[in-house]
Structures are given as structure tokens and as C-alpha cells.
Amino acid sequence: MKLLALEARQNATYYVSRYQQLEALGATVHVLNGVGTDDFWPADRYRVAGSQHIDDLIAAARTWHAETGFDGVLTFSESGVVAVAAVAEALGLPGVGLEAARTSRNKLLMREAHRSGGAPHPDFRYVPDVEAALAAGEDFGYPLILKPTLGAASNFVFKIDDAEELRTRFADAAKGIESMSWALMEADGLELGPHGLLVESYLDGHEHLIEALAWDDEVYLGSVVDRVTVEGGTFDDDVHHAPSALTEEQLAEVQRVVKAAAHAQGLRRAVLHAEVRFHQGRPYILEIAIRPGGGGLDHMARISAGHDPIRCVVDVASGVRPDVGHYAPTEVHTAAMCLISQAGKVESVHVPEDVAASPDIFFLKITAHPGDVIKRPPHGNNILGFLGTTGTSLDDALGSATRLADRIHTEMSDIHV
Known about the structure:
Helix content is 32%, strand content 27%. It is built from 13 helices and 19 strands. The strands form four sheets. The chain has an eight-stranded antiparallel beta sheet with strand order 13-12-9-10-11-14-18-16, with helices on both faces. Strands 3-2-1-4 form a four-stranded parallel beta sheet, sandwiched between helices. It has a four-stranded antiparallel beta sheet with strand order 5-8-6-7, sandwiched between helices.
């Protein structure tokens, strides 16, 4: 199985471990970066196009495909899903199609699709300026959510409690999205829909992260993870637990909502990362991305539900139906958290040897390196990495994660961010 992985602009070394997982499953991974470093991947299976324009990416991919004969093209990057759809279409390989990819990338287009397709969703409005945002606040009421249309990783997503705060956060977000890495990593020359801000009505209940599969007329929930973070004014998505505490009846409702939303987005054969939040006892769709979730969610899926979203990527990219069923949790509890520091420049991150070797850990990934600048809300949402642990219960797994995270030492220096 020969797969082409693609990023228009390389996101450091973040996806190397994912590509290694693909190869562990038997795939031969070739990597094409539009703009990237020379030593990112083994030289015989790595090329840099020298441009992040979609025409140049397609040309480079087409030349390589003629030489190698790829079975599929994929990305793990939120900023790469539209580019991959364009490349797949150009090469005649399996893909979701440009329209579905664009709808699944741009939050405004996604919301409009949910509305047209009858998937339960929060009220929303595109707000080109602060006056429009304030008008939406008057109509929706407070609290409300402010978010980018082309965001990722909760960057510049704010919970707003009143009009004064909305004025301040709108200015922060409007400025921040212009230099947001997730927008800058998109391929040039693609129509992505409006690049701006949305106001959404607030959903007041518990939240869940789902690894799923759309295949023809069915949508399968492979893994369901509960968000257990105490919510503030920003969304770090920093603590999660699985298996889910949802009842069978609630899971059935969630499956119906995810299916309606996926089909509304035009997704019929795709690996999905869905986020659902309850409001007044009913599930509503927050978003569906056409890639696996990050931060160790794939490991949580395998351990707590016997579902492998990375194997699903291999199959779907090559047009093969994955061997999956509906959600079937195991008895192993998992807890995962983001490793969060203060803002500043990273001088060092030290993980004690006994922490790294702990049998409780199923996932430990340090993504920040010396010299990196960490931005924290309202200026950005950078983190140090991820930690996941197993246990006999939520309290046991979460206690282990907290204890081990506290022993990871970070030295930071002040810097204006």
C-alpha cells in the first residue's frame, strides 16, 4: 500500500509519529511538503515542492504518482484537508471531493450545511466587524462563543460573558487570525470560504470527542471520549476521559446527530473527528473534521474502545472499507491532558526518566522545543505536549496523569508575545 501524505507547509515534526504509525500498519508512506525542511522523512520517499501553491503541489504529486503509483493521498493536518481533496481529484485517487472538504474545513460553511441538512447545531452568525458581533450578542444573549472560520486547536475561541468582553475579544481574535499558523499553513490558490469570525449561541452541557467513520449510508462511532475540563473563558481541551459515561440512549442520540451532520457536510467515505455538546439534555454538533483527532485520541480509541482511527485512514485513503462497528467500550480507563505552561520562550523541557518509563503512560509527546515561543490566550493557544495514562477508574487514571505531569519541568524565559 503506497500512500502519499501531504502538507502545504510543514508543521515542524508534528506528524512524523502519525506517518510512522501508518508504516507500522504496513503502508509505505511517501511525504510531499510544499514548504519544508530537507530532513523531515527518509530521502527516497520525501520531496519538497518548493511552493505551497496548490498548482505546484498538484504538479509535484502528479509527477511522483506517475513514477510510483500511489494508492491514496492523505493528511493529518486540519490545514491540509482541502489541498488533499484537490490533489486526490487531480490524481484520480479516492477522496471526499473539494466541496465536502471545503465545507468540512470552514466553520461558516459547515454551520450552513448543518442548518440545511437538519443537524442540531447552535445558532450562528458570520460577523465581519465588532458591530455585527454586538448585534448577534443582543439577539443570541450571553454567554456566547466567538471563533474563527478557519481555526484549529481552539486558537482564538472565546466564551464571552458580556458586550464589553466581546469588544475586547473581538479585537484580539480579529488581529490574531491574520497570523494564525493554521491559516498560514493552507495551500495558496484554493477557495476556502470566508476567513473571519463567527458568533455562536452557547451550549450549556457536557462535551464529547468522537472518532468515527462515514461509509456510504452509515456513520459508525468508533470511540467516544468525555471532556472533563473545568470550563473557563477559553478552550484548551486539556483533560479527557474514556470510555464515555454516556448512556446507551444518549449514545444513540449522539450517533444520529453525527450522522446527520456528516451527511450534511457531504461526507460519505471519510474518517471523522466529531465534537458534540449537550444543551438542555440534547446533543448538538459542534464540528466534524475529516481527519483523526490529535493529542493521543487515537491511542485512547484503541485502548478504551478497540477502535483504530489510523488504520481507518489507511483503508479510506485507498478506497477500502475499514472493518469497524459501532461503539463498544472496553473496561480500561484512560485519561489524557495537554501539558500547558505559561507564555514565553521555551528554554528547556525535562522529563524524568522514571516518568517517561511509567507503566501507567500510554502516550507522552513533547511538541515544544527550546527556542519555541509559547503563546497563551488571548494571543494564541500553544502547548508543550500531551500526556495520557491508564487506570482502573477515571479518578485513578486522572490522578496518575496529574501526578506525572507535575514532575515534568519546564524552564521559560519572558518574551513579548
